[in-house]
């Protein structure tokens, strides 16, 4: 099956295709808390709701939940961590950590900002007359 992929910058490609990592505390969504949805930067698949985002203090955007079926979990080559990918296109997102007791769901999806794009929630049309 063939998908249309968004054009990536060289840095986005380094992270998404070649499984790189952006430096901590540098991503545009690390300290970002607006209402909306985070989608895969490569294929626009919805991945996370802003309601699941929390401040883990780790230097990358952190989520304690994802949309059903949005993520693929794979053993990381380091043999310790679990890599998370977009289930639709296989884009590298980051890593999953379980058991840290940071939220009630006890899960941290640690995601590179370069792997995701934020779509703001629609504004209410209460201003129209």
UniProtKB/TrEMBL annotation:
Gene3D superfamilies: Peptide methionine sulfoxide reductase. It comes from the Archaea. SUPFAM superfamilies: Mss4-like. The keyword Zinc applies. Pfam families: SelR (PF01641). It is an enzyme of class 1 (oxidoreductase). Keywords: Metal-binding, Oxidoreductase, Zinc. One of its GO terms (molecular function) is peptide-methionine (R)-S-oxide reductase activity. The keyword Amino-acid biosynthesis does not apply. Transmembrane segments: none annotated. InterPro entries: Met_Sox_Rdtase_MsrB, Met_Sox_Rdtase_MsrB_dom, Mss4-like_sf. Its EC number is 1.8.4.12. Its cofactor is Zn(2+). GO terms for biological process: protein repair; response to oxidative stress. Residues 1-121 form the MsrB domain. This is Methionine sulfoxide reductase B. It comes from Nitrososphaera gargensis (strain Ga9.2). The lineage of its organism: Archaea, Nitrososphaerota, Nitrososphaeria, Nitrososphaerales, Nitrososphaeraceae.
